[in-house]
Amino acid sequence: MERIPTTPPMTSADSFVPPAAEGYIVLAAYRPPEELFARQLRSIQAQTLQTFRCLIVADGDRDAVRAQTTAAVGDDGRFSVIGFDERVGFYRNFERGLAAVPTGVPWVALSDQDDDWMPDKLATLVAALEGVSLVSGQARVVTYPDGAVVSASTDRRVVSAPALVLENQFSGALCVFRGELLGVALPFPAYPGPAQVHDHWLAVCAAASAGTDVVDRVVQDYVQHGANVLGEADAARLGWRETIRRRRAALRAEGGGPRALARSIYTVNAGWAEAMADALRSRLDSDVARELAAAYGARRRAMTTLRAVLGAVRRGEVTPRTAIVHVSGAALWKLTGGRRA
Length: 341
What we know:
With 341 residues, this protein is α/β, with parallel strands linked by helices. It has helices at residues 34-45, 62-73, 89-99, 121-127, 161-166, 182-185, 198-207, 240-254, 258-283, 287-296, 302-314, 320-335, and strands at 3-4, 23-29, 52-59, 79-84, 107-111, 116-117, 134-143, 149-151, 175-178, 212-224. Strands 1, 2, 3, 4, 5, 6, 7, 8, 9 and 10 form a ten-stranded mixed β-sheet that branches. Helix 8 packs across helix 9 and helix 11 runs antiparallel to helix 12. It is globular. The termini are far apart. Mean pLDDT is 86; it is low at 1-15 and 229-238.
């Protein structure tokens, strides 16, 4: 099994709790498609690592989700459903689920409602948490309902923390992380824009803690269908079309005028980077947290930001497109008075 080395090195001398200790899986559910949801739950139930609790967080329609869960896994006491009347979207729904995880849990996995896990996914990823805060596997990308293979494997990789802020490399459905990371990550940053993503934030927290790692092995099918929120990967890897869509959504929220246009460009990358960097620095005193705040936080200097962005491009860690969106958004927002506001 090929391993991609983590960076930065471990910052804590504490050893990791053995994989046999009971961890938590947090699954965010919103009107789950019956067939895919049942298949996903059964693939979790069939894991070779059996010591887990699966917490299903219903974003509305709790009773319907509970009925679907019972139909899929029967009376398996490891599965439970909590729910709320108010719908908050996937970002805040994952936050609600993670906030319900008991203190002291050794590891936490995230799950979408419509994928299909390999039987040894948890065993593989939990074992790989030794020495790092968060680990990801790879996924095979398939379409539903025809089952066509779009890609034999994703291309998750470890990059430097400044590059990770610019362009996320970690999909929550592929990740397992140490429970102690929740002490840094919760509550999620409040950000009034369409760029906020729970797995991006968790990965940045991990990069500034004990680091991240990637196991280069397919651990699940990533199922693509018409109801996907983001699809395979987040907006950082989806190209100009997704960036423009998010900018337009931000522009509608801001109203009209030059300042609103500048903020819509700022929102899709630089604004979210600022929110993450400042929230992280307020909670964590580490070299990486200070570095990210200096490059992307509210008190950033333009040259420090430019060096961080260009360095990531030179190392091949982010695309030129991402660099352009970030730098132009930050510059336009500053020129229109956004920094002073």
